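Entry 14. Structure prediction run on the chain below.
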Amino acid sequence: MGWVGASVAISLLHKGVCRELLVNDVRNDIAEGEAMDLNHGTSFFSAANIRAVSIAEMRDCNAIVVTAGKGGTEGQSRLDLLNENLKIAKGISNELKGFNGILIIVANPVDVLTYFYQKYTGLPANRVIGTGTFLDSARLREVIGNKLNLEPKTIHAQVIGEHGDSSVFLWSKATIGGTVIREWEGWKPEYEKEIEDEVRSAAAEIIKRKGATNHAIGVVTATLLKWIMRGERRVVTLSTVLDSTFEYGQIAMSLPVLISDIGIERVVKLNLHPNEEMDMVKSAKIISNAIESAKS
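Output returned:
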């Protein structure tokens, strides 16, 4: 469960996504304490029954969110977490045998773990979804909004590729009110590098100050689950295991996907600027190398 799991839980309750919320932690007393604490707030959000249970007891859920894993520390990349969190992934996957719902992966490195959770559980690729660059894209819009003094909701901009240092910013497709961002009055070319650096370092800056990131990813994950459970057909950037029709190889990485109540309906293929395509190939290679190193 941890900080992120707790933030996902409270965000789900505030959004009224579920009538029953099951929580688990490797330390059962923590899970029980969180369930008790959350239940005490039920007068202030939609009615829900919150219980601490084993992972095996979650097999009949419509959706499961995996936040389990060692958290990042200052100066540590998401890929540095791989070996420790892969062991955890194997154990959880074994306990989830027979689960047929939607599996949301939040733990890092999210792209690599999304790939292995799909392989370990045997679930169809469209039902194993990594939060990927969904939060990166939200951070991008927020930073652009601050730079231009605009409400982030009016900005359409995406980050794809790895949820990490090789993420790719789609400046060629970013728009504000239908206007290409590079043509927006007051926009300067040097903003792009400044904004990329701020978005990529956002998690590290938060970890430096408070030890973990949890609130924004909690809201992002709860929102994703709300859209899936309600069958809202939306296009967002999420990590998914790609098939052979994509030139990036057998990996999981973030691309725009159409989501619905079945999970991911399809991956949206993009016509990228040549520079962006080169960056995507580099990003895919980094993920592929991490996957291969974990297999060996």
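Residues 274-295 form the longest helix (22 residues).
Filed with the rest of this week's runs.
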